[in-house]
Design a protein that fits this description.
Length: about 425
């Protein structure tokens, strides 16, 4: 991510704060490293920390926190684990940084908001080499800041963040699952629902991305303008029309509901397939058992051609609150939670795709799907907050009963969507 020159002062202030609290730097020699028995920095004694993580991870985080406390038992560190979903983390932290968590999980699209507001403490240089060496390149690239010739990493990679098709193999065959037309026909034939949160910009962006629309970062002095690539309007319109036509054809099959309704539908037997993500891998697998199927997003027929669906893929991180009273303890906790052992726990228990290259996750269907999608999906980074509502509206309009899918109406919808993002 390219941060404008105006942020150089922000970094200078943050780094000065780091120096004064006594953190290590690239020139320090304190006898420890981020993977060894000693911390890369001197952890404060009697630190009292708050940790935010999504509700699905709270039980696991509590166990991992206990391991961290045992590791530093001589430091008498107290840690409170609080449920806080990643999509709201930035908003809640910015509302009152002093009352927010010292360490918190967040999604990659929130990085620009957090850095502009000086809410993130940059990762100490002691940890940077470990992050660059041991985590996937894409996960590291999305959390870098480059300005005035100095590159900074802002947070610790935790997991991939993306979605795919999940299906009940007793209803939808593996062949059916390869195309939207196939999976929807199978669901309709069985009298089952296909669940998709099409009125959510995180998912509905695929209706335009599949036609070649891409994000090209941020613009403007305040980094509050979304740049888009030089797309071909006709291709984007054709993609939007293909999805709109499917919604109309299978209106009795589609269930436009929140993503959690996918696993709920699997459990009660009403849903045969849906768009869900890595964060729900464990509950989806439990609900379907031996009939659990996962595959990358299916192809869609656009003007007679099977076209790869392009969605959004991002990453989740552990960040350190720039106003924490215990920066060294908070930084070491974030590092601990992002390291291979904790990532292995999240993969084994929750099915979360790891960013740490030492985690054994080759057998996961979700991991395979995510690796395939990562080659073509739009990266969930450098996104203005105003992106989401217009794209949510685009999805809502396309899925409306009797939606207009003529060229003129779709061009008007696309034009208004992009205009509304940048005001």
């Amino acid at each position: 991510m390219k941060i404008k020159r105006i942020l150089s002062l922000v970094l200078a202030i943050a780094l000065m704060a780091v120096v004064f609290v006594g953190c290590g730097d690239s020139t320090s020699d304190n006898g420890g490293d981020s993977n060894g028995d000693s911390a890369a920095v001197e952890v404060e004694s009697n630190a009292s920390l708050k940790l935010w993580g999504p509700s699905a991870t709270v039980d696991l985080l509590k166990r991992q926190v206990k391991e961290f406390q045992d590791k530093y038992s001589d430091k008498n560190i107290k840690i409170e684990v609080v449920a806080q979903e990643e999509n709201d983390a930035a908003t809640n932290l910015l509302n009152d940084p002093t009352a927010a968590a010292d360490v918190f999980a967040f999604a990659s699209d929130q990085l620009s908001r957090l850095t502009l507001a000086k809410a993130l403490m940059p990762v100490y240089s002691d940890y940077e080499e470990d992050i660059k060496t041991n985590h996937t390149e894409a996960a590291v690239e999305t959390v870098k800041g480059d300005y005035d010739g100095k590159e900074v990493i802002y947070a610790f990679p935790e997991t991939d963040n993306g979605y795919y098709l999940v299906y009940n193999k007793s209803v939808v065959s593996d062949k059916d699952a390869k195309s939207w037309e196939g999976v929807l026909a199978a669901c309709e034939k069985a009298g089952k629902k296909f669940v998709m949160d099409a009125g959510n910009g995180y998912y509905s962006c695929m209706f335009a991305f599949t036609g070649g629309l891409k994000l090209e970062g941020l613009a403007g002095e305040a980094q509050d303008e979304q740049k888009f690539n030089d797309y071909k309007e006709d291709d984007v319109i054709a993609s939007m029309k293909a999805f709109g036509d499917l919604f109309a054809k299978y209106k009795k099959t589609f269930s436009f509901a929140s993503v959690d309704k996918v696993s709920a539908g699997f459990k009660d037997g009403t849903c045969a397939a849906g768009i869900d993500g890595t964060w729900n891998a464990a509950v989806d697998s439990e609900a379907l058992g031996k009939d659990y199927g996962v595959i990358k997003l299916p192809t869609i027929d656009i003007n007679g051609k099977a076209t790869e669906t392009i969605g959004m893929i991002g990453y989740k991180y552990f960040g350190v609150n720039g106003q924490t009273k215990y920066p060294n303890a908070a930084m070491e906790l974030a590092n601990f939670l992002a390291d291979k052992d904790c990532q292995q726990d999240r993969f084994d228990e929750l099915g979360w795709t790891p960013t740490h290259k030492s985690v054994k996750a080759e057998s996961s269907a979700g991991t395979t799907a995510m690796l395939q999608e990562a080659k073509t999906f739009v990266v969930q980074a450098d996104i203005v907050q105003s992106f989401w509502d217009p794209f949510a509206n685009l999805g809502t309009q396309l899925k409306k009963d009797g939606a207009k899918t003529d060229e003129a109406s779709l061009k008007d919808l696309l034009k208004k969507t992009l205009a509304n993002i940048n005001g």
